[in-house]
Design a protein that fits this description.
This protein is α+β, with helices and mostly antiparallel strands. The protein is built from four helices and five strands. It has one domain. Helices cover about 35% and strands about 20% of the residues. Strands 1, 2, 3, 4 and 5 form a five-stranded antiparallel beta sheet that branches.
């Protein structure tokens, strides 16, 4: 699983080109960069490749620091959403082998666990979870 930021737009677009039949404007790094500039969170493209197949999922990672009732965890927990709820995963082919889907789900789960997200995103973009 590769995790890309909007500043890596060439790589982001390269992944989307492999999913050319399925992606829309809502998947583009520029669309997500606008959401970042409006303070909606930090965009990431989770890109998974296996055996010539590609699955990509753009998400906005948001801090929960302003959410009441969470307590001390608010500074370490994040959530993920899509820009205005429009995008979802895109694939390089209409039919994807079960093993590829399972691999994507496994790696996405590992990349997005509470503790792992902070560590991986920090590594991928030198961002803090509270600002991711």
């Amino acid at each position: 699983m590769r995790v890309l930021t909007t500043s890596q737009s060439d790589e982001w677009l390269s992944v989307l080109r492999r999913c050319s039949a399925m992606h829309d404007v809502y998947h583009l790094p520029g669309y997500h960069a606008v959401a970042e500039r409006h303070g909606e969170g930090e965009a990431r493209l989770f890109a998974y490749e296996q055996a010539g197949y590609t699955i990509a999922l753009p998400l906005i990672i948001r801090t929960l620091a302003d959410l009441r009732g969470i307590g001390v965890s608010a500074n370490t927990w994040c959530d993920a959403t899509s820009v205005y709820g429009y995008s979802g995963p895109v694939c390089s082919r209409k039919e994807m082998p079960r093993a590829v889907i399972d691999g994507f789900q496994r790696d996405l789960t590992a990349a997005s666990s509470v503790r792992t997200t902070a560590d991986r995103l920090r590594t991928a973009s030198t961002a803090r979870c509270a600002r991711v």
